[in-house]
Amino acid sequence: MTEPLRIVRVANFVTPVSGGLRTALRHLGAGYLAAGHQPVLVVPGARHGDRWTDQGRVVTLPGPAVPGSGGYRLLTDRRAVARTLAELAPDRLEVSDRTTLRWTGRWARSHGIPAVMVSHESAAGVLGTWGLPGAWARTLADRLNARTARGFDTVVCTTAWSAAEFRRIGARNVVQAPLGVDLALLHPARRDPAVRARYADPAQVLLVLCSRLSAEKRPDRALDALAELRRRRVPAVLAVAGTGPLRRRLAAEAERQRLPVRFLGHLARREELAALLASADAVIAPGPVETFGLAALEALACGTPVAVSRSSALPQIVGPAGAVANDTGVGFAHAVSELLDRPVDGRRAAARARATGFGWEAAVTAFLAVHGAPVPAAGAPPLTGRP
Questions:
Q1: Exposed/middle/buried for 276, CB within 10 Å: 0-12, 13-18, 19+?
Q2: Which domain holds residue 110?
Q3: CA-based torsion, 131, 134, 136, 137: positive or negative
Q4: Whether residues 171 and 211 fall in one domain
Q5: What is the C-alpha separation between 56 and 336, in angstroms, rounded?
Q6: Residue 70 belongs to a domain with what CATH number?
Q7: What are the distances in angstroms from CA 232 to CA 133, 223, 254, 283, 357?
Q8: Rama region for 11: left / alpha / beta (φ>0; ψ in -120 to 50; rest)
Q9: Helices 294-301 and 20-34, interaxial angle, to 10°?
Q10: In the predicted structure, residue 380 carries a pLDDT above the cut 60
Q11: H or E segment at 271?
Q12: Using CA atoms, how far apart are residues 110 and 105, in angstroms rounded to an integer?
């Protein structure tokens, strides 16, 4: 193969307990490394750090915590970031934050380095969750997206849904590249009667919400759906895997309504999360602005069907293996009921079959193609630890 590329990736909003973005960065980095390239990830943290991991080199720069975000930090010192990038001397730059890190596109262009922005969210959708009226959110999002498209050689979107807001403004440097799922770790064989019994009685319906507990994810709709199902005399209970700034408020609301909800916090061991997802009867994915939805895909890989927001990209991802819900508690209760009405073996087989089309090997190949980087014909092997 040709000379390996040093692919420097810069990201904000990554913590040890964050979900989809952290998972995507880890698997893509491991794939780049396995393909013979040199991935380096630069992220914010409480202090300086520089270590080797199973996704390659990870450099941590001090960044302030965002108040009320549940632990997210930002790379706000542009001089320090620019100095670090210069020292790393990237062949390619890959950025995962089109708000505070958009300036890195100018830095890359001034140094003759091809730069890619990965769009992990819908700008209009996020602005809408902040309370901006629809027309205003769309107008502001169009302006922000135009600046992003002009500032980078390529904008990567993971679904047609997420690419639509760039296509709308006529951006011509947009490509699609999917994310993936760990089909070996996340498997229906993880289903465990002991795990299920920990959260539900044999006659109960075990629902799972696996999400960051923050406003844009709308975790409250899972509680509303649970309340509606119980009003219909469906003996449902809910296990919530994840943490975030809304946890206390949600716990208080569950207590006020006397809803059977277990808040599990962040499940650090992926095997534990896999067993929970595989042992559930259905998973609720209420986020209305999800551009890909790794948590939903992980549930499908475990053989568990998912009720997803009609407003998000998830209907494209789950296909017939899921059920599409209107963005209300009643809507999600309808969707869950639809899933439960399907024969158990059939719905679990359909979920797993859908997930098998989203392996990380294909995702790594697609992202490397964006960078003009070769990948071995065999694809990327699974995560293997420190090189």
A1: buried
A2: 6-180+359-370
A3: positive
A4: no
A5: 40
A6: 3.40.50.2000
A7: 34, 14, 18, 19, 36
A8: beta
A9: 70
A10: no
A11: helix 270-279
A12: 9
Whole-number mean pLDDT of the chain? 91
Quickly count: other Cβ atoms within 10 Å of residue 210's Cβ.
25
* Assigned domain for 376 exists: no
Q: What percent of the chain has pLDDT over 70?
A: 94
State the Cα–Cα distance between residues 29 and 156, nearest whole angstrom.
16
Dihedral over alpha carbons 243, 97, 44, 13 (to 10 degrees): 0
CB-neighbour burial class of residue 1 (10 A; exposed 0-12, middle 13-18, buried 19+): exposed
Average the pLDDT over 149-165 and give the result: 93
Does residue 18 share a domain with residue 164? yes
Q: 168 and 207: one domain?
A: no
Number of folded domains that form the chain: 2
Q: Is 321 helix (H, G, I), strand (E, B) or coil?
A: helix
Do residue 121 and residue 142 come from a single domain? yes
The pair of structure tokens assigned to 204 is 């109960």
User: With 60 as the cut, is the pLDDT of residue 105 above it?
Assistant: yes
Same domain for 131 and 237?
no
Judge residue 16's burial from the number of C-beta atoms within 10 Å of its C-beta, 0-12 exposed, 13-18 middle, 19 or more buried. exposed
Phi, psi of 78 (to 5 degrees): -65, -35
Encode 175-203: b = buried (16+ Cβ within 10 Å), e = exposed. Answer: eebbbbbbbebbbbebbeeebbeebbeee
